[in-house]
Amino acid sequence: MSLRLADKLAVVTGGTNGIGLSIVETFSREGATVVFTGRNLERGEAAEAATGGKFIALDVTDPEHAEKLVAAALGVGKRIDILVNNAGGAAHRGGVETIAADHLDEAMAVHLRAPWLAIARVAPVMRAAGGGSIINICSVAAQRVGAHSTPYAVTKAALLHLTRCAAAELGGDGIRVNSVSPGFIKTSIHASWLKLNTEPAHAEGILDFIAQSFVRRQVIPQSGQPNDVSEAVLYLASDESKFVTGTDLVIDGGLMWGQVKKF
Q1: Which of 19, 57, 102, 115 has a 20 to 30 A CA-CA distance from 63?
Q2: 29: closest CA among 58, 56, 55, 8?
Q3: Can you give the C-alpha Rg of the chain in angstroms?
Q4: Domain ranges in the chain?
Q5: 9-185+225-251 is classed in which CATH architecture?
Q6: Other C-beta atoms within 10 Å of 202: how many?
Q7: Residue 5 CA to chain centroid, in angstroms?
Q8: What is the Cα–Cα distance from 208 to 216, expressed in whole angstroms?
C-alpha cells in the first residue's frame, strides 16, 4: 500500500495534543516528515517520541514565530510541502459589549495573525518548490451565531475568509489553501475554555453536560473524535485533492443542520 504523503515535509502548529497531535500521527503514518510546534515542552517531547516527528517549542503569539517556524522546517528538509495552521486556544466568554479589548486581541493573535504570518512566510518557500498545500483549522463557530465567545467565533470567521483570499492569491503558484471546520470534537480545549470562564471545581461536570447537549443537536448522535478531523486534513494535504482549493470542509456530525423529526 502506497503512503499518501511519502517524501513530503509537513509543518503543523499546535501539534502536541488533541486535533493537532492526531494530525501529526496521521501524517507520520502516511510517510510525511513532520515538524510540529507547541508551548508545552513535556507534551512536545512525548509526542516527538511517539510519532517520530520533530518538535519545536514555539508560541504562535510570538511575533517572530513564523520566521522561526520556517527556519526549523528548512533545517529538517529542503522544502515545505504542507502547512497546517492548527494552533488555537480557548477564548474568554463574552459578546460585543462585554468582552475586554485585550481578550479580543488575544483571540486575534492566535486565530488570525499567527496563521496569516505563517502563510506569508511559507508561501515563498512553497512557490520556489513548485507548490504546496495549506490547511487552516477553523470552526463551525465561524459560520453560525450564538457561540458563548464572540471573539472566538469572529476570529475563526476571519480565518475562514483568509483561507479564501489566500487561495485566490496563491493558486496560480500551485499552492492550494483550504480549511477544515470541526464541530464538537472531544478534546482538552473545551476543558480549557471552562477553566478560563468557570470555577475550576465545576468545570469537569459541566464538560460532560456540554458534550451531551451537542450530541443531541447533531444528525449523527455521537461525539466527534480528533481522528475524524485529521483524516479530513490528510485528504486536503494529499495529492488526492489536487483540484481543491478555497474550500471549507465541515466535520461536525451534522451540527450545522441539526436534527429533524422523522415523518
Answers
A1: 19
A2: 8
A3: 18
A4: 9-185+225-251
A5: 3-Layer(aba) Sandwich (3.40)
A6: 11
A7: 19
A8: 13
> What is the C-alpha to C-alpha distance for residues 9 and 54, in angstroms, rounded to an integer?
11
Residue (of 256, 112, 103) closest to 181 by Cα position: 256
Burial 90-107 (b: 16+ CB within 10 A, else e): bbbbbeeeebeeebbebb
Active site residues: 152
Output the tens digit of pLDDT for each of the chain's 263 residues.
689 999 999 999 999 999 999 999 999 999 999 999 999 999 999 999 999 999 999 999 999 999 999 999 999 999 999 999 999 987 788 889 999 999 999 999 999 999 999 999 999 999 999 999 999 999 999 998 876 789 999 999 999 999 999 999 999 999 999 999 999 887 755 555 445 455 545 445 566 666 677 777 888 888 899 999 999 999 999 999 999 999 999 999 988 877 655 65
Q: What residues contact 58, with CB distance under 8 A and at least 6 apart?
A: 13, 37, 38, 39, 65, 68, 69, 72
Give the bridge partners for 181, in sequence order: 250
